[in-house]
Design brief:
With 62 residues, this protein is an alpha+beta fold. The longest helix has 12 residues. The strands form two sheets. Strands 1-2 form a two-stranded antiparallel sheet. It has a two-stranded antiparallel sheet with strand order 3-4. The protein is elongated, with a radius of gyration of 13 Å. It contains three helices and four strands. 2% of the residues are buried.
């Protein structure tokens, strides 16, 4: 039951990129604070709930 409620909030109620709800072009980035703190802000792309990090950015984490 929690999964369905979270999907409704994420897709229809949360503010993303100046609009309400996420779309194909405006994805909710749950890692934005972490990537900013690690100095790889902007090099981590969120797509359909997956964090896509380049090899160069991943190498800086090691």
């Amino acid at each position: 039951m929690a999964c369905a409620a979270a999907t409704v909030v994420r897709n229809y109620l949360v503010r993303v990129g100046g609009q309400t709800g996420q779309t194909r072009t405006a994805q909710l980035n749950t890692l934005s604070d972490l990537t900013g703190a690690l100095g790889i802000d902007g090099r981590c792309i969120m797509q359909n709930g997956y964090a896509l990090i380049s090899q160069g950015s991943a190498a800086t984490l090691i």
